[in-house]
């Protein structure tokens, strides 16, 4: 009788161990599924953030430019102009602008190279010249490239910008603006996720992302994808809200952000919650030094940053070497 009892005890022990392993595995899966991230100051499951952010920008797309002007008193235009000057693109530059649905960076890119070409040549009769193109009152005329999109991508001397955004509503706003400016070439539009770009490796000379990366669930994956799609020698540049170091200025900035901007959102766009989220998302984004470390960890070299307006925003740069 002793032997059968031992066998039964052994079988029970094995079943118990199997059950424990099953429960542990189930617990790990549940923990993975329930992994949280931030959405503003809220903690939410990671798999919900993309949809929530999509909804925010779907809501604000039609009033995005108006609100940017109102919230920053137009300063965002100066930041973006400076951003493009720091990039310093030349004829032949192939740019990927991510989270750039409304085209602010893309249009400045085209304008910058157009002005560069004008300064290098006495012949101002550029094919398909666009008369009267203006980003705002101070902007000058912009001409589009005369070649088709496919020819542009094949021609190493033709500049081109691909605008990528996960939100179709934002892309639609950008397309409408391009049509109103008369731009029919020199740029293309792509719906895609910054964390998993639908693009091949080593394609672009430069990668830009302006005021978009903080809305992504995994910032490190976005930077890694930027590294992947850039050619060797390519440059990553990010313009993003950052940390104001001065305590007095930070207090003033915080009061303005939380007390004024959501109210503006309600008055101008009838949307308090979306702009409350945008303000909160700024505070959740890594500061200048921490984000620089993320860029380095992705493989970039010569990593640097430049504060704008006391650190309200910062330009981050790195090279794929």
TrEMBL record:
GO cellular component: extrinsic component of mitochondrial inner membrane
One Pfam short name: Ubie_methyltran
Compartments, as annotated in UniProt: Mitochondrion inner membrane
NCBIfam families cross-referenced by the UniProt entry: MenG_MenH_UbiE (TIGR01934)
The protein's Enzyme Commission number: 2.1.1.201
Subunit structure: Component of a multi-subunit COQ enzyme complex, composed of at least COQ3, COQ4, COQ5, COQ6, COQ7 and COQ9. Interacts with PYURF; the interaction is direct, stabilizes COQ5 protein and associates PYURF with COQ enzyme complex.
InterPro entries tied to this protein: SAM-dependent_MTases_sf, UbiE/COQ5_MeTrFase, UbiE/COQ5_MeTrFase_CS
Protein name, entry field: 2-methoxy-6-polyprenyl-1,4-benzoquinol methylase, mitochondrial
Positions contributing to S-adenosyl-L-methionine binding: 102, 165, 193-194
Organism: Mytilus edulis
UniProt function note: Methyltransferase required for the conversion of 2-polyprenyl-6-methoxy-1,4-benzoquinol (DDMQH2) to 2-polyprenyl-3-methyl-6-methoxy-1,4-benzoquinol (DMQH2).
Keywords for this protein: Membrane, Methyltransferase, Mitochondrion, Mitochondrion inner membrane, S-adenosyl-L-methionine, Transferase, Ubiquinone biosynthesis
Transmembrane stretches, start-end: none
Location of the region described as Disordered in the Swiss-Prot/TrEMBL record: 138-157
């Amino acid at each position: 009788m002793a032997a059968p009892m031992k066998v039964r005890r052994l079988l029970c022990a094995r079943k118990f161990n199997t059950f424990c392993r099953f429960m542990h595995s189930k617990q790990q899966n549940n923990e993975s599924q329930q992994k949280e991230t931030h959405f503003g100051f809220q903690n939410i499951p990671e798999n919900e953030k993309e949809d929530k952010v999509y909804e925010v920008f779907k809501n604000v797309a039609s009033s995005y430019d108006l609100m940017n002007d109102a919230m920053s008193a137009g300063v965002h235009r100066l930041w973006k102009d400076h951003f493009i000057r720091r990039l310093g693109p030349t004829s032949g530059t192939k740019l990927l602008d991510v989270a750039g649905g409304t085209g602010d960076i893309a249009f400045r890119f085209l304008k910058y190279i157009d002005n560069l070409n004008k300064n290098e040549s006495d012949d101002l009769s550029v094919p398909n010249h666009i008369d009267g193109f203006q980003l705002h009152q101070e902007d000058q005329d912009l001409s589009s490239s005369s070649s088709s999109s496919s020819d542009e991508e094949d021609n190493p001397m033709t500049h081109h910008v691909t605008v990528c955004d996960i939100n179709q509503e934002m892309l639609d706003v950008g397309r409408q603006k391009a049509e109103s400016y008369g731009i029919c070439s020199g740029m293309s539009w792509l719906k895609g996720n910054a964390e998993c770009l639908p693009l091949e490796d080593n394609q672009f000379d430069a990668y830009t992302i302006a005021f978009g990366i903080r809305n992504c669930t995994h910032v490190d994956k976005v930077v890694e994808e930027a590294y992947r799609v850039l050619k060797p020698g390519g440059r990553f540049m990010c313009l993003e809200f950052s940390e104001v170091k001065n305590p007095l200025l930070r207090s003033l900035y915080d009061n303005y952000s939380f007390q004024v901007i959501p109210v503006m959102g309600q008055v101008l766009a009838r949307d308090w919650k979306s702009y409350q989220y945008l303000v909160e998302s700024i505070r959740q984004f890594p500061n200048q030094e921490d984000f620089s470390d993320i860029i380095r960890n992705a493989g970039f070299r010569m990593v640097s940053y430049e504060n704008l307006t006391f650190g309200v925003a910062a330009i981050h740069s790195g090279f794929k070497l």
